[in-house]
């Protein structure tokens, strides 16, 4: 979230699209009801289903799964053609006036540089025009046809209300009603928040769904303000934290990235990431990359990391390609993976196309499960009748199942969607012989290290030199680890302006990432978490909930990254002269007397940079402004374009009916053998979509009796028209098939799933909750991901769980 | 401590005066359920079972979201989901938390023949004391909302206590505390009516011109009230009775049996007023032997 | 106040007309009115965070006993933390049911091993499990570690063993896991955020 849960109460309009906050995040959704109660806010829900969020909305609009970019592109067109935008904001704080390279082009659904064989782009033309001074060329009059404003206007002019309605199946008047409500927040004294979740990410064009939403918010001047923002509602209690810590194939902590094979030169690796400002007077905060990087390497390899060995740069693994979950299961399926460790992760249920996942796991030599619960993955080899019909004798995988603790049995911190690191305390001992995850990881690692110490082996240096300064080496404590990622001074850290002044003494905890140095004098395992545990103690454990400004900031409750800041880009809530656009919702303001920014939040800005210096609010971008034109940062193009889901009920993309290459996302990666696993509408005519229900959490709560009681058995939801066509009644058992398999479940026939008019014909949706499996206390069920396609978003490779094709029949 | 743990207003089948010199500090309490804010998440169902140490059966899905399907001795509250189109083409999903309404004039208590099995505290809570229950089921007949359920396990009647154990020590009921959206609130009845008025104003401003408070007079008002978007049509909400009254049979019984009682007429006489007789009498006999 | 059946009869006989079973001789032993005892009175309260979604709701965990040496706490109730600025004491149906997650029959209690081709789990000690896993990992790493690619570039990666990290484990666990995985040269490494 750019903003945070409680801040939602400051909004005037809530758009829930690509999410279902009332069901998936009920206690966060309370802040929507507070905004409604105290600000007369309105709630819009756009969703293929009339969800429990829709049940309490002021306006609901249906949409065909997988067409969000068409819908939002239409909103952009509405805002631009009706001039409902925040003029000063977009002119000053975005790239509206930036000129785009003349070579950049868009032709019938494809951007310049497409290579159909590789399904990827040469992005060299996707950039701004840069002048001789090294800065981007701009046209403040916004008249130049190559300026971002003009190009964007032309791009989205094609998304007329009729086109949107025809692609999305949203009635035209419903679409226009939503546009009108959204447009009402273009004024400085009104704001909108967008709450989204996996309903936007789990598409082959997921990242672009989110970008389009962010573009709408930028046009309205709703980013950086209280009650505004792009609010990603993370699905699990600490995937925010694990992502922050870089536990993704290509990441290092704090959104630093691993080098690729070609990046043999350490200096070039850093320079590429430490971008110089692209406009005069801009901060471009990533220029500090090397400080973060060196401090990270010092945290990991201590004295072994020196300037001479480039701080162990070569010890980091380098990427020849992405190793995301789909790629790894593809490799596993090809027999290239021998071992796999699942720590609190249940891929048999969570990953797409169960038959492929199951077959891949069976090719492993060894599988290690670390989990508090008996997961489906841990028994992938076991025959569970129709729900997991395998022959154990044919599966040669060795499986270890190690019991770990749950939340109630450990100390530690989790990062909420609000980016707040909150400490929790152990309440009881774990059951039986279960051990904490840290003890388990240490148990494996220390034995590996001993084996390398005694017997040598492949490149042992990073293993043997890994810092391990724990009082009980076999059981590293959460306190020690938290202090390590928060960071400390290895030598005295002095003020760059006055080297005689010591800011932090050697051995002391750092106050924040501003104190990090690139000379090896500081150590910090995750720069964005820096300061979470300072000499003041464990700030994550703070429990002062006072809210002196009354807008829900609670700065003394726990610790938010970065730097305890609660609303990102909050400089953008003020006009160029430093005055809040809406004084009733003031986050920060420029105080000329003290020469500082301050207020209800920690400024997301250089704290002493006066407005007249012209530094812009988006300090992480080298431009200093927000980008409508994504330059080369997205796989499928700088402006989001509607593409059909990989499996679509339409034969072509209505935006580009004659270009087969532009039917679905042209940059989405598809493994060779998986093309044959995609279904066609003649056999699978209905749109399938999967989701959570409020009664359950993922595949966990089916193990909790209370939750099993309130939602006991697997079901699918269909509309009344389809039910009538197929002779299906409430409570009947139905079989839902995709090209990849089938599930059997109870039918819920409902008015809440509508038949949509799409491109002149009727399109039905089959909705499928995910929560069942063959372990736990609910009635046994089929794994819903039996049905889903093995394809992901072109940027993140997040699987397309939200839109695919199925057929349905009464059993 | 017994009787003093909460002050008593009335006890079933008991004519001795209840101790009642104390005045409730906060006055009568009430739980207000604002259906326009309810997301049907069932957190209240779970919190109720968890707090009260109940676990219903893991049932089946019969084609609807409602689970468990009905109130039971283990489920003292359930969500009832109704898909309605009040206006043509405008779907509404009305979700009503069903459970004891804690009537000011409780039909269950009036109908109950077992001394002290049903108690009304001076704060308005109507509580069942299962140790005194004989399982006759008259409370069900007496209830205009069809709430109490006889357990197959111990043949006694169970229903929502409004968490009298929590309220007794100054806490709100478990369902109220847990409600994520604040659709359920709890406080003095006066405050709850005031809160409801604010909600109704808001709903009217959003186009629900018939929004209203449900606090039916036929049962003397209730200590569990609803805010309804469609106050003129309570039946839309899974057949919430428009004008609930205590069954005339209960009043008849009260009126006729009093004199009959003093004549020493037996159980069978008044039992005939009701549709069914459960295993109650046998239970009573057993109790007699142990006395 | 204790009222015996005989006293009850006396009270009734004192002239108050009765419409109850009492008059018919069916008075129970005690017609009292006591609310259920408040079960949290002397339990130990611990502050925690809900492990499910990312709202990060504050929890109060109640366990039996007062942490005295001879009374290992058993968790008996969980409800929302009213001080928490986001959930303010509320919990959703998942959070409200956490007690049954903690005590689920599906909780794993001892390390187990499934041999190739076997139909069943067998218990294994922690030490044996760690030792065996470490050996399998080392054998695979030593055999398949790529120090240099075909172009002779230093790449130091190990991609024949992979890992999926948890989604509800703490930052401290996550940090330790990240550090270990990269020290081994692991790249086939993701967390739940990927899906």
Strand-helix topology:
The complex is a heterotrimer of chains A (811), B (291) and C (195).
Chain A: E1 13-17, H1 21-24, H2 26-39, E2 42-47, E3 59-62, H3 68-81, H4 87-93, E4 106-107, E5 110-111, E6 114-115, E7 120-121, H5 148-156, H6 161-168, H7 172-183, E8 192-196, H8 198-201, H9 206-219, E9 230-232, H10 239-244, E10 251-252, E11 256-257, H11 266-273, H12 289-301, H13 325-333, E12 339-343, H14 347-350, H15 354-361, E13 366-371, E14 398-403, E15 412-415, E16 420-424, H16 437-455, H17 461-464, H18 478-486, E17 488-489, E18 493-495, E19 498-504, E20 522-523, E21 533-534, E22 537-538, E23 559-560, E24 588-591, E25 596-599, E26 686-691, H19 705-710, E27 715-719, H20 720-726, E28 733-738, E29 741-750, E30 756-758, E31 761-763, E32 765-769, E33 804-810
Parallel strand pairs in A: 1-2, 1-8, 2-3, 8-9, 12-13, 13-14, 26-32, 27-29
Antiparallel strand pairs in A: 4-5, 6-7, 10-11, 15-16, 16-23, 17-20, 18-19, 21-22, 24-25, 26-33, 27-32, 28-29, 28-33, 30-31
Helix pairs in contact in A: 3-6, 3-7, 3-9, 13-15
Chain B: E1 8-11, E2 29-34, H1 43-51, E3 77-87, E4 90-99, H2 107-111, E5 118-121, E6 126-128, H3 138-142, E7 149-150, E8 157-158, H4 164-168, H5 174-178, E9 184-188, H6 189-205, E10 212-214, E11 224-228, H7 248-262, H8 267-271, H9 280-290
Parallel strand pairs in B: 2-11
Antiparallel strand pairs in B: 1-5, 2-9, 3-4, 5-6, 7-8, 10-11
Chain C: H1 5-13, E1 44-49, E2 58-63, E3 75-80, H2 93-96, H3 98-102, E4 112-114, E5 122-123, H4 126-144, E6 146-148, E7 154-157, E8 161-165, H5 171-183, E9 189-191
Parallel strand pairs in C: 8-9
Antiparallel strand pairs in C: 1-2, 2-3, 4-5, 6-7
